[in-house]
Design goal:
Blueprint: H1 2-21, H2 29-67, H3 76-83, H4 99-106, H5 117-120, H6 147-155, H7 158-171, E1 175-186, E2 191-206, E3 209-227, E4 233-257, E5 261-295, E6 298-316, E7 321-339, E8 342-353, E9 365-374
Antiparallel strand pairs: 1-2, 1-9, 2-3, 3-4, 4-5, 5-6, 5-7, 7-8, 8-9
Length: about 375
């Protein structure tokens, strides 16, 4: 009999607790939830489409400039000189004449003047009508008509060709850089601090376009909370300390340049290799427990709902997860010349995930500022 009463008391306590926790249905709540969920999906889809469109637009512009003929190359004269092509020589009207012949032209024809025997053996020089030349240029002044010939002579000079070729090689060489990048890693439920650094390389392609790559190491703490699927569950939180190697491949366009400063945008993808993954999973749920309390000298059995947490730790072996082209990179940068061959860069960036990353398939976005010195 006592056992039957105890069971009835448990059932009544459970029924009362469930009645207290039951929430009445609000008209339109389900429709509002579905509408909110659809809006979030549309925003994610629109963000992905916009990012992909910007990336392909940058690639299209880059390939357009890469394969289009460059009609304003400053090295046309040097390349022609190196190829050994013959250029037409412009004949200068200022022909050097012997002084004795000029006097002969000005003197009367009735008194011919004999030139020395050494002069008569010279090849005949061209006679110029001095009456039409009202201005005689100075010795150090070059005639206007000799400008094209002078440029051609300078381009055929071996020393000038070698010097210009050296300058062009220096300008078009690969530039290495060392950078440090503080930033954040954010998920749908939390934001945490992240840090990265490494070595980069900028490979010139054509004009103001270059290809940027490198090897970067990054460390970040990521936390993500999800709703529990159990009947009495509250939430399920996953936290991870992640260390990875990032290999970016970006196309950079330098859209504005002045004397010692330039601005550029960069876009591309990154491949990620995780070298260390340590996770901690916390599962929170509610349980109905039986408590014995004393009231007025009598013991009573009371049932209460308590919250319990179960913590599980897990780690993955190094180099266990590789994600080729796992993120999209977008960067806006400023380059400042320091001295000689050294440049200082400031680059705000955003890294958008394409797929889930790591062993626990976590999706997180990265953002921050790159501080780089290149040479």
């Amino acid at each position: 009999m006592e056992h039957w009463k105890k069971n009835n008391q448990i059932e009544d306590s459970i029924r009362e607790l469930l009645d207290e926790r039951e929430e009445s249905y609000i008209p339109g709540a389900w429709e509002a939830f579905v509408h909110h969920r659809d809006r979030r999906r549309k925003k994610r889809y629109l963000k992905f489409v916009t990012t992909a469109a910007a990336f392909f637009l940058i690639l299209f512009v880059g390939f357009h400039f890469l394969f289009s003929p460059d009609s304003h190359s400053p090295y046309t004269t040097i390349e022609r000189a190196m190829d050994g092509e013959q250029r037409p020589v412009v004949e200068s009207p200022m022909v050097e004449q012997p002084v004795m012949e000029q006097l002969a032209v000005l003197s009367p024809p009735t008194q011919p003047m004999k030139l020395p025997e050494s002069d008569t053996k010279r090849p005949p020089t061209k006679r110029v009508d001095t009456t039409q030349q009202t201005v005689i240029p100075k010795k150090d002044q070059k005639p206007i008509t000799e400008k094209k010939q002078t440029l051609a002579d300078e381009s055929s000079d071996p020393w000038l060709v070698k010097n210009n070729e050296k300058q062009r090689t220096t300008r078009e060489r690969i530039r290495l850089g060392i950078h440090f990048s503080p930033g954040i890693a954010t998920t749908s439920s939390a934001t945490s601090f992240a840090i990265a650094g490494g070595i980069t390389a900028d490979i010139p392609i054509s004009g103001s376009f270059s290809l940027s790559t490198g090897i970067l190491a990054e460390h970040q703490h990521v936390s993500m909370t999800q709703a529990s699927r159990e009947s009495m569950g509250i939430d399920y939180r996953t936290s991870g300390d992640l260390t990875a190697i990032d290999v970016p491949l970006n196309l950079t366009w330098k859209f504005y340049s002045e004397k010692n400063r330039s601005f550029y945008i960069s876009g591309g993808v990154s491949s990620i290799l995780f070298i260390q993954q340590e996770y901690q999973m916390i599962d929170r749920k509610q349980e109905l427990v039986e408590l014995v309390k004393e009231h007025n000298g009598k013991q009573e059995i009371v049932y209460e709902v308590i919250t319990k947490e179960s913590v599980t730790a897990e780690s993955s072996p190094p180099f266990d997860n590789f994600h080729p082209f796992g993120r999209i990179n977008l960067t806006l940068g400023m380059e400042q010349r320091l001295t000689g061959r050294f440049y200082y860069h400031v680059e705000p960036y955003v890294k958008i995930p394409i797929t889930e990353l790591g062993t626990k398939d976590m999706r997180f976005m990265g953002a921050g500022i790159n501080f780089k010195v290149s040479f």
